[in-house]
Amino acid sequence: MSTFGLERVLSPRTVALVGGSSRPSSLGLAVLMNLKACGFSGRIAVVNPNYAAIDGEITSPDLKSLPFVPDLVAITAPAAAIPGIISDAAAVGVAGAVILSAGLGHGAGSLAETVALTARMHGMRLIGPNCLGVMVPRAKLNASFAAHQPAEGRLALISQSGAVAAAMIEWAAERRLGFSGIVSIGDQLDVDVADLLDYFAQDDHTTAILLYLEAVKDARKFMSAARAAARLKPLIVVKGGRMSQGAKAAATHTGALAGSDAVYDAAFRRAGMLRVYDLRELFDCAELLGRGFVPHGNRLSILTNGGGLGILAIDRLVELGGVPASLSAETIAALDRVLPQGWSRANPVDISGDADAARYVSALDVLLEDANSDAVLVMNVETAVAPTEGIAEAVAQCVRDRRTRKSDVAALVLASWDGADERTAATFEAARVPHFPTEDDAVRAFMYLVRYREASVALTATPPSIASTFTPKTAAARSVIAKTLSEGREWLDPAEIVALFEAYDIPIVPTVAARDADDAADKAAPFLAQGLAVAVKVFSRDISHKSDVGGVILGLRTRERVAEAARAVLSRARNARPDAVLQGVTIQPMIERRAARELILGIADDPTFGPVIVFGRGGTAVEVINDKALALPPLDMNLARDLVSRTRVSRLLAAYRDVPAVPADVVPLTLVKLAQMAADIPEVAELDINPLLADEAGVLALDARVAVRRSPRLLAGQTRLAVRPYPSQWEGELALRDGSRVVIRPLRPEDEPMVESFFRRVTAEDLRLRFFQAMKNFSHTFIARLTQLDYARAMAFAALDPSTGAMVGAVQLHSDSLYENAEYAILLQSDLKGRGFGWALMQLLIQYARSEGLKRLSGEVLAENTTMLNMCHELGFTAVTEPTDRRIVNVVLDLSLSAVDALGADILIRRSRDQSGVTETTR
Hints:
35% of the residues lie in helices and 22% in strands. It is of the alpha/beta class. Residues 245-249, 407-411, 898-902 and 915-923 have low confidence and may be disordered. GO terms for molecular function: ligase activity. This is Bifunctional acetate--CoA ligase family protein/GNAT family N-acetyltransferase. Keywords: ATP-binding, Ligase, Nucleotide-binding, Tricarboxylic acid cycle.
């Protein structure tokens, strides 16, 4: 249900506590005390049939007896009573409930199922059960049993653990940080992580979101919400249970490498979330983000009175990927003027152990003017000659003074005071200077924010197009898979693997199957005639790793040796695996590529996130080396390059000594192809290419295994991908009234230059009618919002001139959190009006909206835009002038009305997927 009803739940006007108690240390009394102590201005009622009054509050026997209908009900009653309480709450019209009690059980027939069904039937939102509660300081709401009242601030905290939420409140109180909201979600019977990410992403009072996560239930919903939130504000996650699952036993190396936590890490990365690994790191990130600090880059200057500590800080900075700021000549000269001889004249700026407050401030003023530095870490070690408290006060005042002159300067200063006492900490708190107990803590916190900024940039980076270099033959690939499944087989045979890889343009060594030794000699003859040695490998769908059973013999150059090898590998396999069915052997020509690097590429199936792409160092010791990285499909070239860069083997792809480099994008492009296969053919459950050889000539798969299955999700008509892929089925053509046609396809991230060019060909007046204001410049960020779509929430169709490929129009929609109503927008090249172009695009959008199950299509139109209003009238939209702004008309189309049926007919002339040349995917 996403954000539906959450505003009334998290900012209620009235609250009722059901299960209040006068018993000391009881849950009910703790919640009541917090509700009263937080200063809640609305009415508070207490429901308990066993007491006449609790803590001075007159009680009511049940919710139906209350003189008002509460927006929020906090429930601390025993589990057995909760279904009845929810039924009463739904009957009187309560907006939502937070269930703090535990013990409702799980699954079919449980109390939890009964409660959830009742609430869902009445549109009532539930938080919990088994949670700490809800705290929204701005709304003076504390419906929790937390020990302390959180302060008001701009951090939102979503936690699957009540204990973690309580710890965050305690820590924040010490650091004088506040929260826009704290929600402990417990068992997520209704409101889940994704719902709250949507809510706080749109909350004007929240600047950053902190998330403690243990497990994701709905991967696609989570990914969609997380990606949307991370584009708007910092999203920091710490995940519990990292070590609860080790590498599983799997039929392929890929499956073994794709451990549960590694997949979560890939999901967080894809969403643009910043992952930290413990509460201390979460606290440090919150220390900076709670104050709205994000550095412009990764260059750090260090100012210290202790050279050794400065060197340690530099070491840690470089180790974590940061860059010691290089002091400019002007900065060094300025420091020479204010510092005594003997200062370090380099970064770290060591101003000696006798440095007093004046020396610190003089040096800090200079460093803050250096354009080569993105932040300054000020460090101090207490000495007998300079009072540390006075230095802290001077540094804090320096930051205050500069903040009044340059609003962003305060974001550049961090502090680490060795052995700081409460007074020093309070000094920095009052000046809003982030401070840390050690240089390691400070540098780590700085680098986490650098990573956040890099992730933010990556989220909106425009990927290069590969449409002209890669055209998958999906129909041919699907026929291979269909044949295997129709025969009741799970594993593709070698010839089928070659056909599948050829369909996706993944080079693979020729492979032929042979029944026995004589057949093997015959099948090897053509390769031997070319002067090539061959490899003989056992062929059994029951044996995952051939080398484990001695099932591989290499370097064979005669028919006799081939026959002997075939007999040998079959004999070894029978002895090692008497239970295995042997289909024979396979013959492959030996590929001699002296400088080739051995890589592994594959697709693994994660029970939560579905298909996962794995890349790393290949070979027989792949699990031992464990040099791998994971990513969620689909991929574009930027994402694929990032995947490669996160491995150690990526360094070997560059040239070294007399070894030529692997062409820059040949490996990333292969990963894009593999990810496209995962998106196009969901029956591919597991795939392993090991090794994939890579050298200056390109890539070549030497060995591969592919398992196919119809998973329960596929049988139920559900997708396996956590990130919705590019919807290629919506590619085609539209016929206009004058008989001409335009090419139609969904927008892709790499379309940014095309969209920018299109905007330049639209008149200023048409742009004003579309955007409600004069538009002269279109930034990368602005266009990225239009082209980098989450197809689970939004769609935009580009209309292209079939002769030139230029964009001539676009229509888009973006749905609400319930996926019921979508807002539309349309823009045409100005000289193409009057040909039924806009009409055709709107029909297409209506057709798409109905296919997605949306109920309404709405938009805002300027009252002067009579052309658009007339078209909306003809299409069946209702029109109402906006009461607060008479210049705007709100138009709404009810997609459930039968009058739309004719408009919703399939007007798209669809093109074959294999001919489209479209392989790009959503980010």
